């Protein structure tokens, strides 16, 4: 698994409002600096960080505004994370989430049929069966790692089905996702190159799968959908790898880390866990609340294409903006003074921004919601409770907001 040192090697003094610092997420202490930013400087300029200068957009309304103006705030000019592309160190691997219109629209339209309501209905039986099999294999009263045995396994199985990927090699998808999504790797030239090697390994593996499907009848998997589309059938090697990585990371990290947040988060709020156990009809709403509370991708980045103004702040052409979904989902003006808590019956939980907003909203959101919902339903059916037995190991990074491991024991209620 990709890991790097998390302390800055520069002599730069620590800026308490530089919320890109990885230790904030490793140690789960990001809440206070974001609370301060929302209250005092919701659109805040950080002149110096490990990722250079950037604006932090930390409250709900301005993030929606930025997302609603994709021609002014580009995904393509600088990419979707705070990490910048470096000539000579990186190879550009375009992906449709990091493209502007019209390319984004055409490529997104290619893969979106895999995530329609009818496809969710078609896949739900299989998802439920696989979830049941995993839960029935878990020990009750014996410690195990929830992230490995449940979160990773369920999401990796789903990815293997979406890609028609060889079942015995499915853990390669997790491995590639961890390397691709680790923003901290950009701070080391050696790790940049190592990641590039793994991305080419991924591309070569998928190229072989692609070649096996050329001139074959269409099938309901993502590779076949790409082959049989005008927008994606002629991608070059780098765009092919880029879009694969997008679908792997997007399909893996959102669902995987929300499933882990279900175990960790409800353990932190036992009264809410009891409420959910006594009222299983709250499961669908609780899923939205868990996704809001966790926010599996902490930020997305945009780059200004022109001089503009955002809620009173003058933004210059070329400025980098981080839309901190993780903060907007705790915005007290939207979710109330208890926004830091899990409330399984929160009335507006579905208003969360964890999937983004506008044209770049997560194309697989329905599938993520379905997988997490079925997990909670099958846990309730078995009257199983997750009891955390130790501290989680968290991802030390400001992009993927998640868990490496979480020791738990199951009990019956």
Automatic annotation (TrEMBL):
One of its GO terms (molecular function) is oxidoreductase activity, acting on paired donors, with incorporation or reduction of molecular oxygen. The keyword Heme applies. SUPFAM superfamilies: Cytochrome P450. InterPro entries: Cyt_P450, Cyt_P450_B, Cyt_P450_CS, Cyt_P450_sf. Signal peptide: none annotated. Keywords: Heme, Iron, Metal-binding, Monooxygenase, Oxidoreductase. It comes from the Bacteria. Belongs to the cytochrome P450 family. This is Cytochrome P450. It comes from Stakelama marina.
């Amino acid at each position: 698994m990709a890991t790097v040192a998390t302390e800055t090697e520069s002599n730069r003094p620590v800026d308490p409002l530089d919320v890109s610092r990885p230790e904030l997420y490793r140690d789960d202490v990001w809440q206070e600096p974001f609370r301060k930013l929302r209250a005092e400087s919701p659109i805040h300029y950080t002149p110096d960080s490990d990722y250079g200068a950037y604006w932090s957009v930390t409250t709900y309304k301005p993030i929606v505004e930025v997302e609603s103006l994709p021609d002014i705030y580009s995904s393509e000019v600088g990419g979707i994370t705070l990490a910048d592309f470096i000539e000579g160190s990186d190879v550009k691997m375009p992906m449709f989430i990091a493209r502007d219109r019209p390319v984004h629209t055409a490529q997104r339209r290619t893969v979106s049929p895999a995530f329609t309501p009818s496809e969710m209905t078609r896949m739900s039986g299989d998802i439920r069966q696989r979830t049941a099999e995993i839960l029935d294999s878990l020990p009750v009263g014996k410690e195990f790692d929830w992230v490995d045995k449940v979160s990773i396994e369920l999401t990796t199985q789903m990815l293997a089905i979406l890609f028609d990927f060889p079942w015995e090699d499915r853990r390669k998808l997790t491995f590639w996702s961890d390397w691709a999504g680790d923003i901290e790797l950009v701070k080391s030239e050696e790790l940049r190159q190592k990641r590039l090697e793994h991305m080419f390994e991924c591309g070569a593996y998928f190229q072989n799968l692609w070649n096996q499907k050329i001139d074959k009848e269409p099938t309901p998997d993502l590779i076949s959908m790409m082959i049989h589309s005008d927008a994606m059938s002629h991608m070059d090697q780098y765009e092919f790898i880029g879009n694969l990585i997008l679908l792997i990371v997007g399909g893996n990290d959102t669902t995987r880390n929300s499933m882990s947040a279900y175990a960790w988060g409800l353990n932190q709020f036992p009264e809410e866990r009891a409420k959910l156990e006594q009222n299983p009809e709250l499961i669908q709403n609780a899923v939205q609340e868990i996704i809001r509370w966790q926010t599996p991708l902490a930020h997305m980045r945009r780059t200004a294409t022109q001089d503009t103004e955002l809620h009173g702040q003058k933004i210059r052409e070329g400025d980098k903006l981080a839309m901190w979904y993780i903060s907007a989902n705790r915005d007290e003006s939207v979710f109330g003074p208890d926004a830091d808590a899990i409330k399984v019956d929160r009335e507006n939980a579905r208003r969360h921004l964890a999937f983004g907003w506008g044209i770049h909203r997560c194309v697989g959101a329905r599938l993520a919601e379905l997988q997490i919902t079925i997990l909670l339903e099958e846990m309730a059916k078995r009257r199983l409770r997750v009891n955390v037995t130790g501290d989680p190991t968290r991802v030390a990074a400001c992009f993927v907001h998640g868990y490496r491991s979480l020791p738990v024991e199951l009990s019956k209620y």
